[in-house]
TrEMBL record:
Cofactor: FMN
Residues the record marks as active site: H266
InterPro entries reported for this sequence: Aldolase_TIM, Alpha-hydoxy_acid_DH_FMN, FMN-dep_DH, FMN_HAD, FMN_hydac_DH_AS
Presence of the UniProt keyword rRNA-binding in the record: no
Name of this protein: Alpha-hydroxy-acid oxidizing enzyme
Binding site for glyoxylate: Y139, R174, H266, R269
Domain FMN hydroxy acid dehydrogenase residues, every copy: 9-371
PROSITE patterns listed in its UniProt record: FMN_HYDROXY_ACID_DH_1, FMN_HYDROXY_ACID_DH_2
């Protein structure tokens, strides 16, 4: 794989996460960058996630004592120093030899949870041994015996929650990967799976994505609410459904007793044309009416984005691609840099919005810029 040509940017000071994105694009092989940065289809939802967040504005509160802002909170029953967790992301050894071990160490240092992907490139046991709070993300596999085994291993490893991804009946059509004929290099594997279940992602077959072919063979497209009941009988871990956007689905999940939901469109990597996650959040919030925790992902790039999500009812957010940018640049210390940037931005945003702690962010009003024709109109949310 060729590297993207770039002038030496080692002397460039990085102030925010967008700077990390630019730097990471310079150092990663082009096919790996496409795998990380790309979305499905024509990438409309990928772009819409950012556009939706950018059109939201917060009404700050004044005359509030913000001399000591605290960002600590509780996420899925565990304490976190920020209302942030690291999202589940596969095959992180593509970005850095230490992969998930480095990202998990940075999350532990920051005092936030790290979510281990089913398709992580290090074993969940090794990632959990790094320390810190870990959650496990479960893809529903065709082989129920493997599902049961993964859940048992997550419990034995000390994972504190089970995030069940429900929006991947099959992998979205990611045209960048299809054009690149993307496949994993031999040294990067789905370490949580036995070799016979992991090898398909390495097999190039002309134009097409080996990862899509692999997941199509591995993932079960026929999962229903009955399967959720089956899973609840087989684990003591809190169940969280990741990939919920419709309020009717959210209401049903809360009625069935899930511990939480992740309002997510998979970072624009599944159904192209799906609603931006932040726009789905208010209706989901109203549907669950406090019956379960709400997390949000897809498009979070700043502390201001986190503040908007909190104000609209999220308990916290999952941070995805920015973690990978930091990992690509400097392993654990690059991820630490990304998390530090986000923490500083959130602290500043809360201070300037008049919020001394996470609970007070709920009182903020959020409005949307609804001026496609340039007229001066604002829409309350």
């Amino acid at each position: 794989m060729s590297r993207i040509p770039v002038e030496d940017d080692s002397a460039v000071t990085r102030f925010h996460l967008d700077d990390l994105q630019v730097a990471a694009a310079h150092v990663l092989p082009s096919q790996v960058w496409d795998f990380v940065a790309g979305g499905s289809g024509r990438e409309r939802t990928l772009a819409a996630n950012r556009a939706a967040l950018d059109r939201l504005y917060v009404m700050p509160r004044v005359m509030t004592d913000v001399s000591a802002v605290t960002m600590g909170t509780e996420l899925l029953g565990t304490k976190a120093s920020l209302p942030v967790a690291v999202a589940p992301m596969a095959y992180q050894r593509l970005l850095h030899p230490e992969g998930e071990l480095a990202s998990a160490a940075a999350a532990a240092a920051a005092g936030i949870p790290f979510t281990v992907s089913t398709l992580s490139s290090y074993r969940m046991e090794d990632i959990a041994a790094v320390g810190g709070v870990t959650w496990f993300q479960l893809y529903w596999l065709r082989d129920r015996g493997l599902v049961t085994e993964l859940v048992r291993r997550a419990e034995d490893s000390g994972c504190r929650a089970l995030l069940v991804t429900v929006d991947v009946s099959e992998m979205g059509r990611r045209f960048r990967d299809l054009r690149n004929g993307f496949a994993l290099p031999p040294e990067v594997t789905a370490a949580n799976l036995a070799p016979q279940n992991a090898s398909g992602a390495h097999e190039r077959g002309g134009t097409g994505s080996a990862l899509a072919t692999h997941t199509r063979a591995l993932f079960h497209p026929g999962v229903t609410w009955d399967d959720l009941a089956w899973l609840r009988e087989r684990t003591r871990l809190p169940l969280v459904l990741k990939g919920v956007l419709d309020p009717d689905d959210a209401d049903l999940a809360a009625t069935l007793g899930v511990a939480g939901l992740v309002v997510s469109n998979h970072g624009g990597r599944q159904l192209d044309g799906a609603i931006p996650s932040i726009e789905a959040l208010p209706a989901v919030r109203d549907a669950v009416a406090g019956r379960c925790a709400l997390l949000l992902d897809s498009g979070i790039r700043s502390g201001e984005d986190v503040l908007k999500a909190l104000a609209l009812g999220a308990s916290g957010v999952l941070l995805g691609r920015p973690v990978l940018w930091g990992l690509a640049l400097d392993g654990e210390y690059g991820v630490r840099e990304a998390l530090s940037m986000l923490s500083a931005e959130l602290s500043s945003a809360m201070t300037l919005a008049g919020c001394p702690d996470v609970p007070t962010t709920r009182r903020l009003r959020v409005v949307a810029d609804s001026r496609p024709d340039g007229s001066d109109r604002w829409e309350g949310i």
